[in-house]
């Protein structure tokens, strides 16, 4: 993988080395303090550009345009909330998605399937192991956002969210997030409503660089992508990892997010 990743700067292939241990501890500290960490230049610059070049034609012809009005939970009903509760306020999302079964052996798929990558991520998350998703569509996605488009406020399904920014737009496209807005024991619906009203003072914004690996706790961190401006689309690879094996989407979820179900 040395031809794809800057392994001199990020020695994730050498788990017994001092450099590896220092990197993991730095990432863990940043996750705890800031709610996320990013590793600029994780993918080599020429590799990042080649990956984008390979993706763009299919993105224009084969991607699914996901345009929907939704709440942050992507569910119509949430236990304990009335239909009119401000935490269920609808937001608008528009983006375009290529699924894993449409990416062939693109760099992002090779990286996802590389065992040391998952082992490194598990170490930064303080877990003995994390598992790749069994879903042939959802395991790796590449999403595009064109001018005026963005992925709006939401919580993720998996505990941690792992992405690599492949192409930054001319303007916009930053990640906005609110660390630890909820927990397994406290859904904090009033806090969600406050954020949606635009009055939460703890929302942060992160501007990533092309090729940067980014990890944050997406299941409890409400987050969105700022709408894109300009002629250059935002492209991001999204990797799905879980703390248990065998995770797949339901057919209904596949159709909802990708417009089709995978035929086994």
Can you describe this structure?
This protein is α+β, with helices and mostly antiparallel strands and 264 residues long. It has a single domain, classed as Jelly Rolls. It is 26% helix and 22% strand. It starts with 17 loop residues before the first helix and ends in a 6-residue tail after the last helix. The mean pLDDT is 95.
Mean pLDDT: 95
Multimerization state: single chain
Q: Based on DSSP secondary structure assignment, what is the total number of beta strands?
A: 12
Largest sheet: 7 strands, antiparallel
CATH architecture: Sandwich
Output the CATH topology.
Answer: Jelly Rolls
Strand and helix order: HEHEEHHEEEEHEEEEEH
Give the count of helical stretches: 6
Query: CATH superfamily name?
Result: q2cbj1_9rhob like domain
At a glance:
This protein has helices at residues 18-34, 45-62, 107-113, 115-124, 189-197, 251-258, and strands spanning 36-39, 64-70, 91-98, 131-132, 140-145, 161-167, 175-178, 204-206, 213-216, 222-225, 234-239, 241-242. With 264 residues, the chain is an alpha+beta fold.
């Amino acid at each position: 993988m040395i031809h794809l990743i800057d392994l001199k700067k990020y020695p994730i292939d050498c788990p017994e080395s001092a450099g590896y241990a220092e990197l993991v501890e730095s990432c863990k500290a940043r996750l705890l303090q800031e709610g996320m960490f990013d590793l600029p230049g994780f993918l080599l610059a020429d590799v990042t550009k080649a990956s984008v070049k390979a993706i763009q034609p299919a993105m224009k012809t084969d991607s699914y345009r996901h345009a929907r009005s939704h709440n942050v939970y992507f569910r119509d009903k949430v236990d304990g909330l009335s239909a009119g509760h401000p935490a269920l306020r609808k937001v608008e999302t528009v983006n375009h998605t290529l699924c894993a079964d449409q990416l062939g052996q693109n760099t992002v798929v090779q990286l996802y399937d590389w065992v040391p990558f998952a082992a490194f991520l598990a170490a930064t998350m303080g877990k003995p192991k994390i598992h790749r998703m069994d879903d042939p569509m959802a395991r790796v996605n590449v999403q595009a956002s064109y001018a005026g488009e963005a992925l709006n406020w939401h919580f993720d399904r998996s505990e941690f969210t792992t992405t690599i920014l492949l192409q930054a737009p001319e303007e916009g496209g930053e990640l906005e997030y609110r660390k630890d807005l909820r927990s397994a024991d406290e859904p904090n619906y009033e806090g969600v409503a406050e954020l949606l009203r635009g009055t939460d003072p703890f929302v942060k914004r992160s501007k990533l660089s092309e090729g940067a690996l980014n990890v944050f706790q997406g299941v409890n961190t409400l987050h969105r992508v700022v709408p894109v401006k300009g002629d250059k689309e935002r492209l991001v690879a999204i990797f799905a990892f879980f703390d248990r094996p065998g995770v797949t989407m339901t057919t209904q979820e596949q159709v909802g997010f990708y417009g089709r179900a995978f035929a086994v």
